[in-house]
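Today's session is about reading a structure prediction critically. Students often jump straight to the picture, but the first step is always the sequence itself: look for stretches that repeat, for charged clusters, for runs of hydrophobic residues. Only then move on to the predicted structure, which in these notes is written as discrete structure tokens rather than atom positions. Here is the chain we will use throughout the hour.
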Amino acid sequence: MKNTKVLLLTGDFTEDYEIMVPFQTLLTFGVAADAVTPGKRAGDSIKTAVHDFEGDQSYTEKPGHRFLLNASFDSCSAADYDGLYLTGGRCPEYLRLNPKVLALVQEFLRQGKPVAAICHGIQILTAAGVVRGRRLTAYPAIQPEIEAAGGTYLAVESDQVTCDGNLITAPAWPAHPAILRAFLKAMGVSGFLC
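Below is the predicted structure for this chain, in token form.
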């Protein structure tokens, strides 16, 4: 296996599973993973939220775990990583307002590197202006944003993934096996199928 390094972009109130599971899975398979958020440094932590479906019109939100960041956003460069992973939850709402976040996402895609986004993480992609002409999925409430940004929204089951070139998207955390397999395959990590 080649030495592969991934940047995970996250923030306060990301969905707990959507940072914990990818981070730990990447490490399990020998992939170096740096988790960062603007305004925080290595050694700082973020608060996560647990989203669940309990029969209401929308998901419920409960406090999750604290997640320790292991790198600093300010020192990140797309040139240092093989891929970018955008977590979901509530953090994309404010991360998409940060010009440095948008420039970083654009640079990963400009360099042709794999970018994976799950659930509400797709909001960062729409704000970065990188979905025009692309086919992607997301949490269903993000469909209007995808279409307004010129992308084609694909409704898939919550455990499925959509691959469009180097852009890999999934609607929710039940798709972790599918999105992580596709992401690792796109980075050339052997033994994984999309």
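Discussion point for the tutorial: The helical segments are 16-28, 91-95, 99-110, 122-128, 143-148, 176-186.
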